[in-house]
Amino acid sequence: MRFSVFFLTIFLSVDVLSTPSGLPIPRFVSLRSSEVNLRVGPGNHFPTDWVYQRANLPIEIIAEFGDWRKVKDFDGTQGWIHKSLLSGHLYGLVLKDKTPLLGDNDKNSSVVAWLQNGVVAKLLKCKGDFCQIQIRREDSFKGWVLKTDLWGVDIKE
Question: Of 37, 138, 148, 155, which sits most exposed with the smallest number of CB within 10 A?
């Protein structure tokens, strides 16, 4: 019995580390630059299916092949991006208009600002059902948003 539990533990650890990066899949990352090609396959010889034109847009990695990452965006579009065009900095995408940015991680907290659909914000930390975010425009706003109002956040974390 002890041997089978030990073997299962080793097997599960090897499964996570069997990706080229050694990181778990799926996981969220962001786009490193404001022009990133989404390709139909893992290589420069594959045609470009889509061009993202927004730095820091959150993307979910769903598979790896060498230096290429198969990704999925907020509307379900999938394709391949070279790892050099991705960043480990985490950002969230606001999913609906009039999303309240709260002063604290409490539904009854005062509203700091109202966010529109499509706003990209840096994720600072998550606590319970909320994530603290920062939005940089002319002025910088910081506050809390429900995880369910963001794409790019693992709801279970």
Answer: 138
